Amino acid sequence: ATTYDVRAVEEKWQPVWDRLDPFRADDDAVLSGAREKKYALTMFPYPSGDLHMGHAEVFALHDVIARYWRFRGYEVLNPMGWDSFGLPAENAAIRNDTHPATYTYANIETQYESMKRYGVSFDWSRRLHTSDPEYYRWTQWLFLLMHERGMAYRKNSAVNWCPQDQTVLANEQVLADGTCERCGAVVTKRELTQWYFRTTAYAQELYDCLDDLQDSWIAKVVNAQRNWIGRSEGAHVTFEIEGEIEGEIEGEVAEPITVFTTRPDTLWGATFMVVAADAALASSLVTDEQRPALEAYVDDVRKASDIDRLATDRPKTGVFLGRYAINPVSGERLPIWAADYVLADYGTGAIMAVPAHDQRDLDFAKAFDLPVRMVVDTGEPDPQETFVATTGDGTYVNSGPLDGVSDKAAGIRAAIDILAERGTGSGTVNFRLRDWLLSRQRYWGAPIPIVHCEACGEVPVPTDQLPVELPELTGADLRPQGTSPLGAAAEWVATTCPSCGGAASRDTDTMDTFVDSSWYFLRFVSPNLETAPFDEALARAWGPIDLYIGGDEHAVLHLLYARFFTKVLRDAGLITWSEPFSAYLSQGKVINNGRKMSKSLGNGVNLGEQLAEFGVDAVRLTLVFASPPEDNIDWADMSPGGSLKFLQRAWRLAGDVTSEVGVSPEGGDTALRQATHRTVREAEGLVESYRFNVLVARTMELVNATRKAIDSGCGGEDPAVREAVEVVAILLSMVAPYTAEEMWERLGHEPSVAQVSWPEVDEALLVEDSVTAVVQVKGKVKARLEVSPDISETDLEALALADAAVVRAIDGATVRKVIVRTPKLVNVVV
Ligand code: ANZ
Ligand code: ZN
């Protein structure tokens, strides 16, 4: 036969793999230390629809490393499951008047079948679904652990609200343009009492640990995390408020206000103060006279997104609060304004405005005719005239004790010292990171295991009563109404207080699905354990993950949340490591005709159709060969048909091998043997540095070399040919497992090629037997000599000077110097 039937081959090997189960991870082998472990993880999918090209790409890439590690003798944990709570299932249930579980579990089965056919080396015995009560029981348990450790709490505040999905969103779920990451609606604000995880408690550590991940994570993801955590060094400065506050209590004095500033050195240039208009501070400071103006303004502000509010090019708006603060170093009176460009939840929600050196403050000063005073002379024109703030280094002026200082760091230090001495300020570090808002007013998620009792307050559900299972609700009941649909299950809501036994009600919010995925990698070490979320000894043995592969869209949210969970669990003594993902690789996107695939463009490529036409192996090979993993792949430029042709060519090699299994290749075609061994050695480095596309290229070259050897030289009976074809099968199995199994079988081996070890490299065959030495005369190349790589200096010089072309070039002149760099260069100076 000159070709194999792709479909038949796929159907043939599936049951064999099921029977041999070569990918099952052996806990005992790692617990006993018999084998070193590797934990390979790729992001688990949402069960919406069938797998698509993006899944196909990431699974193909991921499988190279997982299979490679297994070849290298590691015990490999390579699990898969489903992130199966979430909005898509709920929306489908509303559309079809069914239960979200119907949609969810049907899709899971479809995807499972597709994954099996796709031939990824997952350990299916560890399969999990986050929407199973057996799983979310432990999500709830972990929520309670957070609660017990002060890491979960409820507070009332203005939150991001998606008017389309009728639910709150975490800051991380609001896109840069202020829209909902799920549905694209413009996100608004609402005052609500919601549950939060205290991610800010770990801000510093989450930030610092990024240094250790710098080299093993993809750089743009490390940077995205850094920016999101947003560490700023600066100072808190406290300003007294002038006069009395009007109100019920006669003579009451307003509380001083504290600002966060990164430039305490510009304090002498502060000419007014600004507080966030929508924060409590503004309404506590405002005079009765100005109150109506403030209230009208706040109504407008609530409609804008944070991004708009911070934009530098937006016209500045605000309201004077009728009150003054006192500059702690100069005693100057500063009018206090409320404006929307100061955010309520960053720093202290209040700033000192230094219009000369901050553009937003300058724009505001211009809009409301407030004074501008330069305190750092940078040599640039005065901002008071140009309305361009100067932000660079310079010499301090109009700054009392700082005058004449010309170094920013020294100025900041001096200012902090002065503030500290007077007790009106101190150096501090501020983070942009906010606590994680985890309450969702939706049905298809893990219920928050808290009971509200009038007498006892928030009472945790005792852990032996977990899981708090979702009540049965379908279709119409799930329609978003702004409150949680769980509230409609009156019988479910009504319960007794675990503490006093009195009547109480269940919390009706469910958890953000990002909670489910923040710990799934731990559940995989013991997916069926009924006494704890995970086995601690196994977590110690398997963790942390050696390589995590996933999409860029999770560079901030999911990775940060998983890192946070890891740190809390470490502090609770449940795990021993501090970071979950030792290495992280993000794959590019599969696009089509230069554009992202989308329904509206009609340029989607259907994975199922591609698989039907070209087969699994050709699609996988195409995706791996297309580009380095992190680059996008334009499917329009790809040729899966070409990949299939190559696979058939590789497969035909196996049919041409006529030597017996186990014959020593010693004495066979040396050139072919060298090519084989060099390819193996190179493959090691290529896989370990994730250059999988080059791995495929090298495999193709070896296929060509072998074909040439068979046809024009040694023939199929040479054991060097068998050696080469076996190596091709092993290398190919990381990308095209079906073809590789077929080859392995044709070569006379028992299945499966997945179970063999990595080919051993004969170092002697790596030594190159000749290299090209370049001979230059008067700086020009005159000859190239094939020499032994370990030629001596004197031999190389003698050879060079005896070469006819070199002799001609010297043309009888006196040789002044011969510079020899063995084995590659001879430079003759005349
Ligand atoms: C005075 C000053 C002078 C400032 C100057 C900057 C330049 P990052 O680096 O992002 O941390 N700020 C503080 N809290 C704010 C809030 N809630 N909303 C909007 N702006 C706020 O920025 C810190 C700087 O942003 C702070 O330093 C403050 O302005 C402003 F020449 O204080 B600065
Ligand atoms: Zn009670």
TrEMBL record:
| Ranges for domain Methionyl/Valyl/Leucyl/Isoleucyl-tRNA synthetase anticodon-binding | 670-792
Extent of motif 'HIGH' region: 45-55
**What range(s) does the Leucyl-tRNA synthetase editing domain occupy?**
226-410
Binding of ATP occurs at 599
SUPFAM superfamilies to which the protein is assigned, alphabetical: Anticodon-binding domain of a subclass of class I aminoacyl-tRNA synthetases (SSF47323), Nucleotidylyl transferase (SSF52374), ValRS/IleRS/LeuRS editing domain (SSF50677)
| Molecular-function GO terms, alphabetical | aminoacyl-tRNA deacylase activity; ATP binding; leucine-tRNA ligase activity
Please tell me which stretches of this chain the record labels as motif 'KMSKS' region: 596-600
Gene Ontology process terms (BP): leucyl-tRNA aminoacylation
Q: What is its main location?
A: cytoplasm
Record's family? Belongs to the class-I aminoacyl-tRNA synthetase family.
Annotated protein name in UniProt: Leucine--tRNA ligase
Q: What is the lineage of its organism?
A: Bacteria, Bacillati, Actinomycetota, Actinomycetes, Propionibacteriales
| Gene designation per UniProt | leuS
